[in-house]
Design goal:
290 residues; alpha+beta; Ribonuclease Rh, Chain A; 2 domains; 8 helices; 8 strands; 40% helix; globular; binds 2-acetamido-2-deoxy-beta-D-glucopyranose; ribonuclease T2 activity; RNase_T2-like
């Protein structure tokens, strides 16, 4: 009887220990992935998602912050490190104007601060053990400093890459960033429309814990190449999920031809309905006659 009891206690103890370990999250990280995105592309994808979605794009829009992500080598985490560290708008009130300009929420039909709150909960609460990034104010303020200092729009236009609706090669975009900053970025695209287009979407830069720019490289980010990130050119120095076959489109405004396509579709549908109505009326007449 007693032995059975001891055995049961031992089993319970090890089981509990195992469960606790399994739930303990490793929140350590090695470098920061600092992500800037192009509002026109963000808007096009947002509007693709639902006909109810609309965008806020300021008249003098530029590349803006998507997020600042503490990252452990070989993973895309940690994430959501402290659910009780609530987002508090008051903490960043003094830089709200700058956030609106440099960390813009393009999604017009969502609350202004929802984008900041999301990034804070998912990534900001993980930026621990590094004083210049710790806490809401530091976390957001550092990203604003970076986006001002490493202006993607200026870098690209200095290399003849303008948001004029033309297509560029991944090599051109990579070389512009690499030759200016001296480090490898990650270049991200979104796929849009029929036939499929590649839209330039994000430029990601890597910073080490001294907040110096460092190369983003495959060894740090090998997870990138597990599924959709299949493309690495020649020596593997270009980290991207963009198409290597299609030109990479860099639009300066929402392209107008989309509306034209929609109007045409609408017209076709209208004609189809008119024909249906005629057939219906004809059948009705037949029934009435017989
Ligand atoms: C699009 O909508 C789906 C479902 O509502 C959502 O899960 C997804 O995150 C949305 N994507 C974007 C880019 O907003
Ligand atoms: C758009 O909003 C209307 C009204 O709120 C809703 O009934 C409809 O389902 C929405 N459409 C989409 C595609 O989300
Ligand atoms: C989570 O955040 C709360 C609020 O800032 C803080 O009191 C708590 O110590 C944090 N927990 C951990 C594990 O860091
Ligand atoms: C939000 O931050 C302000 C300024 O730091 C502070 O006074 C206030 O107590 C905080 N509110 C909450 C709910 O934590
Ligand atoms: C701004 O960028 C330059 C190089 O482009 C770098 O030398 C400088 O340290 C950066 N400043 C900050 C605050 O990141
Ligand atoms: C960050 O990178 C700089 C420049 O390469 C280097 O001097 C510094 O030692 C690095 N810091 C850390 C913590 O790795």
């Amino acid at each position: 009887m007693r032995w059975q009891f001891v055995y049961l206690m031992l089993v319970l103890f090890f089981h509990a220990r195992h469960t606790i370990t399994a739930f303990q999250q490793d929140d350590s990280w090695d470098y920061i992935l600092f992500v800037q995105h192009w509002p026109i592309t963000v808007c096009m994808k947002w509007m693709d998602n639902s006909s109810n979605n609309s965008c806020t794009i300021s008249p003098n829009y530029q590349w803006t912050v998507h997020g600042s992500w503490p990252t452990k080598i070989g993973t895309d985490g940690p994430q959501y490190c402290n659910s009780s560290w609530h987002f508090n708008m008051t903490e960043i009130e003094s830089i709200e104007g700058e956030l609106e300009q440099y960390w813009t929420n393009v999604e017009a039909n969502t609350p202004l601060s929802s984008f900041w709150e999301y990034e804070w909960r998912k990534h900001g609460t993980c930026a621990l053990n590094l004083e210049p990034l710790e806490g809401e104010f530091n976390y957001f303020n550092q990203a604003i400093a970076w986006t001002k200092n490493f202006s993607i729009g200026d870098i690209l236009s200095a290399h003849g890459i303008h948001p004029d609706g033309s297509g560029y090669s991944i090599q051109q975009i990579h070389d512009a960033i690499q030759s200016t900053l001296g480090v490898n970025p990650v270049i991200e695209c979104e796929v849009h429309g029929k036939p499929k287009m590649s839209l330039l979407s994000e430029i990601r830069l890597c910073f080490n814990k001294s907040l110096n720019l460092i190369d983003c490289d495959i060894d740090k980010m090998h997870y990138l190449f597990l599924d959709e990130y299949l493309y690495d050119l020649e020596d593997g120095q270009i980290l991207t999920d963009c198409s290597l076959k299609r030109p990479i489109m860099y639009f300066g405004q929402i392209p107008h031809f989309e509306n034209t396509i929609k109007d045409e579709e609408l017209e076709e549908r209208q004609q189809f309905l008119t024909q249906l109505r005629k057939i219906y009326q004809f059948l009705h007449l037949l029934i009435w006659l017989t």
